[in-house]
Amino acid sequence: MPKIIKFGLVFFLFSFFSFLIWLSTVLSHYTAPVLMYHYINNEEPLRSRLGVSPESFERQMRFLRERKYNIVSLEELTDLIKNKKKIPSGTVAITFDDGYLDNYTHAYPVLKKYNIPATIFVVINRIGRHLGNDDYMSWNQIRELSESGLITIGSHSMNHPNLSEINSEEQLKEEVFESKKILEKELNQEVKFFSYPFGGRSLEARRMVSLSGYKAAVGTNFPKGSPGDDLYALKRLRISENCRNMFIFWVETSGFYTHIKEQRDDY
Questions:
Q1: 164: which of 131, 154, 202, 252 fits an S-S bond (Cβ 3.0–4.6 Å)?
Q2: Is the same domain home to 26 and 115?
Q3: Average pLDDT, the chain
Q4: Do 2 and 78 belong together in one domain?
């Protein structure tokens, strides 16, 4: 056999088995994606990476339903992780941060249309206010969502500070404990979930969230290699208008994107 053919065969076999090793590694790191949305309107996608147009959002929710994803509430996903149960492939949870008015006017009708559960994290001292370019949901709108049976309301702190930059235990306690207390009083039900403002958390902030009685907490800016089953540091994927491309959305909801992203940079 000519040397060039032998070399080509060896190179092919090496590449093929390297691919199999890479694939097995990726497949062993399946993580049910928790999608993170912010704005659902036609203005914000032009200004930041935090906006998704109503048209793109509906297309994404329809995609999940038509392809029979296992769309679960954050509580259902948390229970699977807590009880160390196998998470079915295609599992996904939907979350929103900040409590913008367009979550009520644009996102909620789509979620109702496709019967998709979601968790919306609200900032207490922004409720019912107009700040800069942003309008926030009122207490009555938040109560309506909470009573719908489809939407879970969680805390996103009192004032939206970066908890990892707070050194005062009293201030941390106010942001974490007090926001839970106020939400539970206004909604007349237990508030089980917390979202770290700006996505990050210190060990002290995590401890405070745990002590306050939340069932779980979500964020984004965690160091590479952070465990995927820490109930007080559940990883999320930010969804932007880039995901109007349904191939990108499919990749990000595959359950393997988190692992792939972590190999590139800090999460």
A1: 202
A2: no
A3: 86
A4: no
Determine the pLDDT at residue 89: 87
Tell me what pLDDT residue 265 has.
53
Which pLDDT band holds residue 202 (cuts at 50, 70, 90)? confident
Domain identity same for 36 and 24:
no
95 vs 175: CA distance, rounded Å = 20
Domain containing 23 equals 1-30
Domain count within the chain = 2
Residue indicated by tokens 């019912």: 128
Query: In this structure, what CATH number is given to the domain that contains residue 225?
Result: 3.20.20.370
